[in-house]
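Fig. S4 source data, part A: sequence.
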Amino acid sequence: MGYNLLKGKKGLIFGALNEQSIAWKVAERAVEEGAEIVLTNTAVSIRMGTISQLAEKCNTIVVPADATSVEDLENLIDKTMEHFGGKFDFMLHSIGMSPNVRKGRTYDDLDYDFLSKTLDISAISFHKAIQVARKKDAINDWGSIVALSYIAAQRTLYGYNDMADAKALLESIARSFGYIYGREKNVRINTVSQSPTPTTAGSGVLGLGDLMGFAENMSPLGNASAEDCANWVVSRLWKYLPYPKEKQSSIASKKTIHPFRKLPNVGVQTEQDLLAMGYTSIDSLKGVKADELYQKECDLRGCSIDRCQLYLYRALEYYINSENPDMDKCKWWYWKDDYFYPSPCGARCVICPSFPKECKGCRNIKGRVFWTQYTGDTVCPIWKCCSEYNRENCGSCPDLPCARFMKDPTISDEENEANLKQMIDNLSEFVK
């Protein structure tokens, strides 16, 4: 089911070969979300694969092009712009191939001519495509370019061979060209690090099955499928493709800024996210939990989004539902897990009146709270006890609450009782 996330957007997709291809899945999802696309691959790949079927399904054209050839890329960009009647909004690079992998040459016995081809096909082609697009001014301002990478660009994974070198170069190109294109045209360049996936290219990697099994065991949510990756790529394209510039100008001229924009941390994109999820006013957000907002946005995008968005929603929940919110605490970074999850005693640091001016949070200060100067302790006794018993907090302790939970002499007995109850409630999910 589509949500028209890419309605009116146009894009060029490299690398679709067959239904196993991640680029194939991205193309399907992009069209489902309302985009118009042009497909491209090498002439040989077009003959060997089934991309023509995809083109028919997506009601588009296929332009043959060798991504390592600047001449072919120039022709590709020209024909893409001719097809769209002007500039386009996004580009996906999903190209990777290693002759060393195909020939079974291990990393300590590389053929260097093969290595040059690996780098040219899998990484330098990305630079060439961006450079040609930029010189021809083919991508609209605020457009988005995405390439598929892999964690082997940053960590050693035996069997991924010289493709790891290629992905490292690919990510470097994204950073370097991203600075240039972003500065000049507000065009973003991002890489998506996909789980090991049994695509036609990926199947040639030595020990792919073992690699997939290792990644599956190391990932709390398991490996992401090609469909998951496609959803994530589409979400990146949507996230980074704002209103058309002319619409932005129209909105600005009419001064129709939504009340959401007056909320702390809420910019254009979060405003759009909230509206897309069905919230129309600040009142409609009252009583809504941050976890609920975060999960709704994940469901809307079809993937797990950056956890920083959850922190933003926590700050938003606090601000909207507080009579007199402390503006110092409305900054999203104060609602990261380290401050939000219960400290050893069960207190949420971000709620504490002493946070963040007098105290930066228990986990940051290692239990050396300011009030120990009045008790004669070196560290908080509760913190010390949890450290000695290797506990995250007191939730699993059979003696909860013990004598280490001292009264605050500056507040009433009733307030102390209420605080203790809240701390115990916060720890309840950790009780075994």
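Fig. S4 source data, part B ends here. DSSP finds 18 helices and six strands in the chain.
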